Automatic annotation (TrEMBL), chains A, B:
Domain HTH tetR-type, residue spans: 4-64
GO molecular function: DNA binding
Protein name (database record): HTH-type transcriptional regulator YxaF
Swiss-Prot/TrEMBL keywords: DNA-binding, Transcription, Transcription regulation
Coiled-coil region: none
Organism: Methylobacterium gregans
UniProt DNA-binding residue ranges: 27-46
Gene3D superfamilies found in the cross-reference section: Tetracycline Repressor, domain 2
DNA damage listed as a keyword: no
InterPro entries on file: Homeodomain-like_sf, HTH_TetR, Tet_transcr_reg_TetR-rel_C_sf, YxaF_TetR_C
Domain of life: Bacteria
Primary gene name: yxaF
Length: 190, 190
DNA sequence: CCGGGCCTGTACCGATCGGTACAGAGATTC
DNA sequence: GAATCTCTGTACCGATCGGTACAGGCCCGG
């Protein structure tokens, strides 16, 4: 379908193709068709081929999360607000469960090893940034780490089951449950 | 490596290959090598090709979960015990987070649509059986449904993040947190 | 000893895979 | 206006894809 109008839209469009078809399933023919580019152009912009395309996509995703979620979690003077913003940003980014997490999908597949460092870094940064915010919001450090792990896990799981059951609302319900758990932990005292 | 000794070991061995490489990544050459069979034998046992292989694998998985987890959840006269047994069975089946859920991996990929009914049925049966057990254990029906959805989601998410972070212990920690939440709900009164 | 299943390996098929080579279009620069 | 540089489409490469055809090995009942 639609050609990518601008060059800067190339990576997001690539991300969408990888999200929908996975790394192995996204053939160069398919990518070219979706981006409106022939192989010549593809290899001009990404001399490293598919591997570089995927690497650039992972890079862009990590940069987006870092700027929009992880940094606020670490630096916002109001950590509770940053936590709530994270949940809202998750709902927006994953299109309320209609979109899949590319990094999570890569983690389950055979490509995991090829991009191990980036995949690991993405989840570790998310977990650590959230734990930091929870601690700053008054939770015990140990409890914060536990809860942060729980939160990232719940979001990933919700993307899996929402996709499996074709039930996008499941994602919203999970975020609500998760929000309640996070709020409870952030209250300075029970 | 090792050839599958008996014919009955074919499907479990197939499942392992699909788990490790995904549907698209599991080529017939790879499958043949892992099962110690040539294409002739492969197509003799599975005339429908890869599609039938995957279908038989999903069938076998669903049958195992039905017998070992879902039915006990629905029928065990001691539902609380069945819930605890489910957590233990999950830990065993997924090798404490070292193994991935094939159904979940399929759900995230492009193959989802091809096996939509089976994937949907697997997760729906799990959720509904667990909700049934929780209700029988004294929880409110609405809370049971919520908690059951939460549990299946948490387990799937833990498999994603454990694989991503190469941290199998994350799976056990998630099961412990989940167990605590389930136990709390099963107490007849707070 | 022999005929006929069941099961197997192998050669082969057209299609598609990721990747390369290259010639030319279009704009820009002097 | 000629040279240059960026970007593009297309033809082509060997390898591999899923799948088919088929001949023969094995083992059985007769």
């Amino acid at each position: 379908m639609g050609a990518a109008a601008s060059r800067d839209d190339l990576v997001p469009a690539l991300a969408e193709v990888f999200r929908e078809h996975g790394f192995e399933g996204a053939s160069l023919a398919l990518i070219g068709a979706r981006l409106g580019l022939g192989k010549g152009s593809l290899y001009h912009h990404f001399p490293g081929g598919k591997e570089e395309m995927a690497a650039r996509v992972l890079e862009a995703i990590e940069a987006w999360f870092e700027a929009e979620m992880f940094r606020p979690l670490r630096e916002d003077p109001d950590p509770a607000r940053a936590v709530r913003a994270m949940l809202a940003a998750s709902d927006a980014y994953f299109r309320s469960g209609r979109r899949v997490c590319l990094v999570g999908a890569f983690a389950l597949g055979a490509v995991r090893d090829r991009f191990a460092r980036r995949i690991d870094a993405y989840f570790a940064a998310w977990r650590d940034a959230l734990a930091d915010a929870l601690t700053r919001a008054g939770a015990e450090p140990a409890a914060s780490r536990d809860l942060a792990e729980d939160a990232v896990t719940a979001i990933q799981g919700a993307l899996v089951t929402a996709s499996a059951l074709q039930d996008p609302e499941l994602f919203g319900r999970t975020l609500r449950r998760l929000g309640a758990r996070l709020e409870a932990a952030m209250k300075p005292a029970a």
